[in-house]
Amino acid sequence: MSLRHASLQKSEIETELKGSFMELRKVLFELNVKDASLLSTAWALLRWHDAHQFCSRSGQPTKKNMAGSKRVCPSNKIIYYPQMAPVVITLVSDGTRCLLARQSSFPKGMYSALAGFCDIGESLEEAVRREVAEEVGLEVERLQYSASQHWPFPNSSLMIACHATVKPGQTEIHVNLRELEAAAWFSLDEVAAALRRKGPYIRQQDETFPFWLPPKLAIAHQLIKEWVEKHSRSSLPA
Ligand SMILES: [Zn+2]
Fold it and tell me: Does position 167 have pLDDT exceeding 90, yes or no?
């Protein structure tokens, strides 16, 4: 895009480029992996610069370095680096079923793995155990790291995905309604069927649409898919 666009109105840019501005949060997962990653990094970095214009010690304006990778306070030389908050995404399983939950802020009908910010001083393992206990009242027996992903909203998180297993027979859930709207155990067949459905990520959803899962590029989707693949293999006849 040429520089003169800086003085154009949004609508003029849309007309000239024959496109339309859309909220990144809504379209991020509709893009290809490379574009999604670039846009997510750019969005997070621009927001961080915008929110760190002043030194929190001296109150003086900070200066961005050439690469945009940090800001420096000219008066006391404090260097500020962009930060990410670690978030654990946990798929709890009892060996045959997995636990999916929804927050009231989720799009209607969407269920996902449990998620929560790590508290300061906590290890990932401690955060997983605490979140699972707090949100659904279950005790994690084993946990295993799966993968991680940067998520730019609302203020850059590093999503760390884990599989957690509870003891068979200790599966009664107590949903913490301050954090979750609902949580339940789902069978392998139910989850496998939900993975095959394409969720109504943008389009309107009708009342009878069955529950659906986060879109393919979301780390929660990958975590759920991994669980389904592992359990489908082990439930195949020998
Ligand atoms: Zn300063």
Answer: no
Sheet holding 63-64, edge to edge: 63-64, 71-72, 79-80
Is 37 buried (19+), middle (13-18) or exposed (0-12) by CB count in 10 A? middle
Distance (Å, rounded) from C-alpha 139 to C-alpha 152? 30
Residue 169 to residues 56, 165, 235: CA-CA distances in angstroms?
51, 12, 20
Q: State yes or no: pLDDT of 19 exceeds 60.
A: yes
pLDDT score of 186 more than 90: yes
- Tokens standing for 207? 């009342």
Report how far ligand 1's centroid is from the alpha carbon of 80 (Å).
10
Pick the CATH number of 85-234 from 1.20.1250.20, 3.40.50.1980, 3.90.79.10, 1.10.260.40: 3.90.79.10
Q: Which residues surround ligand 1, an ion (CB under 5 A)?
A: 55, 57-58, 60, 73, 75-76
The full set of domain ranges for the chain reads 20-80, 85-234
Proportion of the chain in helix, strand, coil states, percent, rounded to 5: 30, 25, 45
84 alpha carbon to ligand 1 midpoint, in Å? 22
CA of 138 to the centre of ligand 1 (A): 46
127-149 residue pLDDT tens: 999 999 999 999 999 999 999 99
